[in-house]
Structures are given as C-alpha cells and as structure tokens.
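Dear H.,

Thanks for agreeing to be a second pair of eyes. The structure we're designing against is below in token form, covering all 859 positions.
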C-alpha cells in the first residue's frame, strides 16, 4: 500500500511468463466471470503471497486459495487449469484458512510433473474476485514477458468514492433443496456461474448446507465464502433466492448444480467421438489408424543437417551465421503473421517465442566465440545450442528442461540453412517403441515404418492426412492432434512402457502392471482375430442378409498393389497416380507411367484396378507445375479442372493408361468432378486416343463424388459414368466448410455429420440402376461409418491393404437390412456426435449382442 493507502501493489507469486487473463484457455477466466486479473505460466514450483492479507479460502483439492487484504479486497490464486480433477495430487498447502501472511511468504508447493500430466495447463490465474472499492490499472507487463518472483505485477487504485452500501434486493423469498452432482464439487468455475446467475436475474442468492448448521451458508457474491463450504458431489443443499425473478434464478442454479454435464469441460478434453473419459496420466488424440500397442515412448529426432566442422575464418563465417539467423528470423515472423491471420493463437505465440530466442545475444555470442576458435558457422551454432540445451536439461527445473525441444528446433532450422547436404538419413529406432513427433512428412513415415515401430503419436496432424493414410496402409496404430503436452510427457526419463489405445483414442503414460497385462491380453486377442480374418481374406464378403460387398484397396503404387493382392483385395478402388508426380523435377513420361500402371494391374491378376488421374492442387503441389496463387487453393484449379490449363499432362497420362493390358481390368477415375460436362469431355478425348492407337477395347471411366454439386447431380453423372466413387474426405470438407488439413477442426470434420450422410444417400439414389457406387475415402474403414455406408446402398468399400481382412470379416457379421431400417432416425439427428453415439449403440461396439452386427472391424 502506498500514497496514503490510495494504491495497492500485487507482486508476482512465482517466476513465470505473463498471459493476459482474457487469453487464458478457459472460458470462465477468459470471460472475466470471476473478475479481472492476470495469469502466469509458472517457471517455479512454489506460489507465494502477492500481498499482505488473511487466507479466507483454501480449496478442498488444494488447487486454489483466496487471500483478503485489510481493505477488503479478495484475491483468488488458481494453480493451473482443471487441476481440481487431480483431487490435490502433487500440491502441498503451506497455509490454512485464518492464517495471516506477509507478501512473499510461501502459500503452496507443487510438483509440476504431476500437474502437467493430469491438468490441461499449468497457467495460473490471479484474479480480483472482490474489488471492494479498488480498480485494477492496466497491467505493466505485456504478453510473454518474463517476470521474477516478487516483481511488481499489478497495481490497484481506490475508486474516487468508497463503494456505496449495496441496495437490499427486494421481493419474495423462494427456496429449493437439491443434491450437488458436479463431480469436482463446487470450485471456482461453478461458483462464478452462480454469481453470474444471481446478477443476471437480479436476485440475492444464497447456498446453505442441509441439514442447516450455524455458519454453513454463503452468499454467492462472496466466492471465497462459497468455496469455503467445501461442497462435494452428493452434498445436500438448500438454495435461497430473493427477488422478483427468484424462481427463474433457482431453475438456472439447479440446472448448473445437478447436471454433471454442466461442469465446464477441460481445455484438454478428449476429442469428439472419444467414448472413454480420460483419467490422470492419460492424453487424448484422434484415431488416425486403429490398433493397440505397448512400449516405451521415443521422440523422433532426425539427424541434424550436415555442416562443415572447420571454418574459413571469422570474416567469412560470422556473416554467414548472421545471414542464416536473419533468414530464419524472417521465416518465423512470416509464420507468426500467417498463424495470427488464421486465428491460430497458440502457434503464433510459439513462433514469436522462437523468434525472440533466436535473437538472444548470449546464444549468438556463444556461437561467435566458437567461430573464433576455428569452427564453421553451422558447427559453431550447433555447439552453442548443444551447450544451452545441456544447461537447461541440468537446471533441475522441469519447466525449463521442457524447452529443450524448442531449442533443438532452432538448432535444426539454422543448420539447415548453413548445410550443403539436404539428404538426411533416417534415424535408427529401437523396434517395438511408440514414436512421438510434432508431425511427420510422408517420406519420414515411410523411413521410420521400415524400422517397425509399435505405434505413432503425433502432436499435430489430422485423420485424413497422407501420414494417416500411410499409417493405416501399414497397420501401425496412430493417434494424431494430441497437443504439445505429448512432447513434454515424452521427454520424461521416468516413463516406462505406455499404452497406446488407438481404438478409444488415448495414451496412458504410466499404466499399472495390471493394466499392461490386460492390454497384452487384448493385443493377443486382436492378433488371433486378425489371423482368423486373414485366413478368410480371399473369400467374398457376404453380409448376413445376403449382400456381396467388394472390398478393394487404396494404394499409392505397384508395391502396395502387391500388398493389396496378398491381403485379399477384390481389386483396387483407388490408385493415387500423383505419387508418380511428386518429389520430381519434371513430370513422369508416358513410358514410366505405363510401367507403373501395368505393374499394378499384373499384381491384381485381372481384378479391377481404378487409377485416379492426377489430383494436384490444394494440399499437394508440384515444383514444376506453377499454379497461380489464389486465396483458397482448395477451391481453385485442382483435379479435373487442371486439364483446361495443362492438357498435355492429361494427354500423356491417358496414353500411358491406354497402353496397359488387359484394358477390361482398367478403370480410370476423374477427381474433383462437379458436373457431367467435365466427364463427357474426357470421355471424348479418351475415345479419340483409343481410336488413334487402334484399340478395340476401352477402359471404364468413372467420376469421384467429392463436392456437393456432384452428389446432388449424381443421376446426371451416372448417365455418363461407368461407375462413381465417393471421396468422403473431400466431400466432408467441402460440405462442412472445414479444411481437412487443419488439426483444430480435425475432430469436427466428420463424415457422419447428417449433411454429409444425406449427400452420400443422394449419390446412391441418383446412381441407382445406372452404375455402381463405391467409397474410397477414409470412411470406408471407419468402424462406425463403414456399416452405415453399406446400409445406405454402397456397393464397394476401398480401404488400406492392412485393413482388408478385418473389414471383410466385419461385413460378414453385418445385417445391412436391419441397420438400414434405422437410417431415417440417424439422418434426423442434429450432428455427427449424436450419429456416432447412436451408431455405437446399434452396432454394439462394446461386445454386447446385437441383431445388426458383432463388433465391426476390431480385428
């Protein structure tokens, strides 16, 4: 207190990085429902008093406490987000209610490791819940500013006039008894909602314990008094509301307190569709490739770029280093701006932090010193960052040690600029490990897959990415979009074997021996199921009600074609020809293409092979094909639209395709068709070329259904096409206006959205009695979507080769007619989550008996 008690200074309770309260990833804090304040991302493991005062509230779960100053101001310090779920684990309170504390005295200690595993974030809000005539001045520290323990954090000033006595609320008094249903009890967030309800309905609202006891009640205006009641799930309560709208206020309060779902979902909640609630020490992810695995986590660390060891002297190497640093700084700044424009705040902050670290004068000075010792710029930077990484790792501070991954990223970026060798060898990985990475490129996945990892866990990525497709093709269990907490957990040396459940979408970081043994049994059961399915993989898939469904393979070339044939594929439903065009300096010639297509046909020995013509654009680009830059490439020139501007590519590809034998086994499929005229134009060109080559046979020509216009005009397309194939990945993204490559939308871009299902139904109805309809998108191997697709009338499913035996086995257990009877109900549901839940019940995925199916594709 200073200036004749006109200002009050709050000190930083812990060393940390400043985060504006409205940017905290929790709607109650960010919406200022509890009050104004600030937040810190702590770099220490002990919270201290920010000012003098009395402890008036300590949460039962030790994650929050309230301090009241002599002037009546109440300050809530909330350690981490969703830490209430930990039930006090990892937190040691050093004070109790009624204690008088001085500024800087310790309040609680915490184990950052325990909290990081069980909470969504360590971000610690400091909130003025009861200003008592004080006004918060704008914070002096901007976002990302590092403040020391005890450094001035916030300043409050008295309002011009003392707070007037609150007017007494008039009106009738109403009461209601209820039982608290919130699993975590009445902590800060639901308490803030109660206060908001009282203010919204302009009532005086009190909460009392039942049976009544002296002092066992609190007005909701006092959050500390309310939380001091120590209310837990099952507590009997009496609510009292006084005011004209008292009954409405009690209705809202009762809905909040008696409905478990009314509890705020944590920032680290499982993605939509994850059926299993997360426990402590578990991380959620989206299932990109089904399967189960156990083993140690290992972080994917590709080898550093090769740089010369000896330098050419300071006059040469110092400018080289400076130039490389400037280039990476510019790249990071551009990435930050792009992330901001795309609304990716977290990514923007990471780029900004990396940029600031890149400018650290100590790092640059350390590198310059090594240049003075004769090192090259690249080697000097490598050694300087090696030394800094070792210092952080040995600091004893787990939060600082977790930043090593960021440092390594900067090390790699700068060394790549200074390297002449752009070919990196794949790192050696112990077999049977679960690989952890930010993300992987397709080539990186192929390299690590050859070393037989037990599973993959990715910080980013999506379920329809090329990496996901490749993981499914190789039968590697894979979770994606797991968030940055994955890397922090993976860097813990204490972790032993973990459990990757890529069926329920979770990673258990510290399973008990019993859980590991149970998972081993499940894996063995899956292995036996898979053996049974593989034994029957070459037999037809005939449903219980007598429908024969072809199960074909999605492949990327001749090698996978042979794998598909060995896996029992009834043909190829999609050969992605763009794999021939990628990672090349020029387009493949006719002969090279023909040989690849011929090899695929030979592998399938006369079974139908659908080859998709070049699908380039949007997420796939070619260095030798300069497409115009447009604001939204996903809506630009791609797929069949490319032939208008680059007809020579189509001409060469069609000639290569017409050169294979037997042509009756070849099916040519055009991507991104939006109207029948596009298909008609290509057929005319195909006929002209076949006549020119003197061919008597013609391959079949079909169209992909990837955009809503094609689905809605399926009857017109079916008049021109020999077959239709639904690309559910693109159809979903264009229907829902959600980028399939955006990890933030990955869990919502769901083929089971009723709008997407209606378009699939329209396609099947439009093509009826005209041509067959298949599905070659990832939905074909989705254990919930695939049975519904068949019930909707789809004739063929095309999946990754490794999934063929399991999908066939599951189809043999499916009664499509029984499931079809439920289609009107499913299409009437409001969203994909509802459809998934209802389908789960109908298909009895929990191994319960069902008239429709036994568990689908679990083997």
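And this is the sequence the design step returned. I haven't edited it by hand at all.
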């Amino acid at each position: 207190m200073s200036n004749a008690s006109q200002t009050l200074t709050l000190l930083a309770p812990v060393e940390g990085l400043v985060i504006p309260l409205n940017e905290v990833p929790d709607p109650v804090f960010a919406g200022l429902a509890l009050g104004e304040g600030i937040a810190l991302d702590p770099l220490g493991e002990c919270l201290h008093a920010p000012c003098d005062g009395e402890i008036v509230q300590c949460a039962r779960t030790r994650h929050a406490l309230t301090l009241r100053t002599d002037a009546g101001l109440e300050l809530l310090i909330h350690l981490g987000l969703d830490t209430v779920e930990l039930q006090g684990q990892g937190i040691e309170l050093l004070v109790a209610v009624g204690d008088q504390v001085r500024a800087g005295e310790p309040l609680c200690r915490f184990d950052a490791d325990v909290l990081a595993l069980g909470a969504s974030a360590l971000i610690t809000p400091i909130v003025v819940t009861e200003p008592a005539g004080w006004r918060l001045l704008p914070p002096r520290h901007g976002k990302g500013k590092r403040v020391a323990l005890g450094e001035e954090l916030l300043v409050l000033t008295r309002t011009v006039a003392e707070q007037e006595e609150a007017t007494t609320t008039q009106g009738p008094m109403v009461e209601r008894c209820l039982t608290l249903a919130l699993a975590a009890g009445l902590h800060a967030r639901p308490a803030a909602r109660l206060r908001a309800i009282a203010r919204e309905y302009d009532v005086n609202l009190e909460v009392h314990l039942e049976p009544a006891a002296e002092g066992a009640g609190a007005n909701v205006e006092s959050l500390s008094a309310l939380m001091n009641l120590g209310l837990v799930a099952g507590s009997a309560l009496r609510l009292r509301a006084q005011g004209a709208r008292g009954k409405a206020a009690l209705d809202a309060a009762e809905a909040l307190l008696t409905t478990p779902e009314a509890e705020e979902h944590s920032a680290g909640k499982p993605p939509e569709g994850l059926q299993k609630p997360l426990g402590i020490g578990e991380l959620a992810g989206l299932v990109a490739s089904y399967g189960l695995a156990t083993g140690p986590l290992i972080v994917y660390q590709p080898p550093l770029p090769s740089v010369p060891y000896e330098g050419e002297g300071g006059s040469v190497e110092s400018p080289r280093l400076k130039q490389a640093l400037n280039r990476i700084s510019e790249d990071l700044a551009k990435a930050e701006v792009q992330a901001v424009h795309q609304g990716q705040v977290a990514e923007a902050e990471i780029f900004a932090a990396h940029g600031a670290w890149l400018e650290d004068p100590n790092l640059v000075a350390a590198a310059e010193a090594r240049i003075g010792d004769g090192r090259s710029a690249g080697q000097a930077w490598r050694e300087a960052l090696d030394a800094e990484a070792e210092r952080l790792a040995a600091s004893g501070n787990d939060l600082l040690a977790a930043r090593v991954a960021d440092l390594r990223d900067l090390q790699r970026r700068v060394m790549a600029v200074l390297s002449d060798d752009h070919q990196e060898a794949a790192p050696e990985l112990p077999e049977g490990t679960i690989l952890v990475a930010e993300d992987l490129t397709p080539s990186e996945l192929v390299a690590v897959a050859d070393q037989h990892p037990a599973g993959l866990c990715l910080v980013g990525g999506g379920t329809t990415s090329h990496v996901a497709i490749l993981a499914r093709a190789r039968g590697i269990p894979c979770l994606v979009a797991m968030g940055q907490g994955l890397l922090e957990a993976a860097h813990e040396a204490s972790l032993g074997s973990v459990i990757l459940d890529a069926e329920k979408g979770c990673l258990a970081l510290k399973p008990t021996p019993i859980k590991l043994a149970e998972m081993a049994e499940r894996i063995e059961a899956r292995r036996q199921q898979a053996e049974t399915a593989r034994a029957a993989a070459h037999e037809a898939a005939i449903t219980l009600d007598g429908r024969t469904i072809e199960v074909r393979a999605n492949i990327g070339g001749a090698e996978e074609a042979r794998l598909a044939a060995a896996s029992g594929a009834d043909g190829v439903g999609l050969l992605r020809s763009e794999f021939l065009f990628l990672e090349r300096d020029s387009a493949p010639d006719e002969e090279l293409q023909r040989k690849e297509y011929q090899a695929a046909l030979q592998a399938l020995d006369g079974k139908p092979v659908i080859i998709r013509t070049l699908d380039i654009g949007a997420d796939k680009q070619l260095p030798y094909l300069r497409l115009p830059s447009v604001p939204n490439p996903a809506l630009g020139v791609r797929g069949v639209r490319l032939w208008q501007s680059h007809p020579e590519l189509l001409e060469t590809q069609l000639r290569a395709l017409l050169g294979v034998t037997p042509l009756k086994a070849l099916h040519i499929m055009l991507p991104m068709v939006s109207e029948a005229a596009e298909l008609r134009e290509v057929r005319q060109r195909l006929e002209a070329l076949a006549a020119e080559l003197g061919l008597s046979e013609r391959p079949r020509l079909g169209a992909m259904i990837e955009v809503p216009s094609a689905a809605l005009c399926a009857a017109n397309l079916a008049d021109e096409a020999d077959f239709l194939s639904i690309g559910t990945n693109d159809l979903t993204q264009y229907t829902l206006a959600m980028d399939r490559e955006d990890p933030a939308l990955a869990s919502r871009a769901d083929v089971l959205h009723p709008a997407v299902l209606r378009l699939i139904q329209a396609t099947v109805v439009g093509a009826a009695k005209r041509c067959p309809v298949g599905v070659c998108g990832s939905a074909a191997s989705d254990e919930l979507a695939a049975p519904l697709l068949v019930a909707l009338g789809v004739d063929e499913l095309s999946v990754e080769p490794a999934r063929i035996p399991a999908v066939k086995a599951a189809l043999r257990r499916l009664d499509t007619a029984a499931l079809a009877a439920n289609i009107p109900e499913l299409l009437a549901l409001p969203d994909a989550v509802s459809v998934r839940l209802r389908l789960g019940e109908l298909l009895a995925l929990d191994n319960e008996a069902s008239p429709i199916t036994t568990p689908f594709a679990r083997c």
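Two observations from my side: Residues 314-341 form the longest helix (28 residues). Residues 160-167, 261-276, 342-346, 845-859 have pLDDT under 50 and may be disordered.

Warmly,
E.
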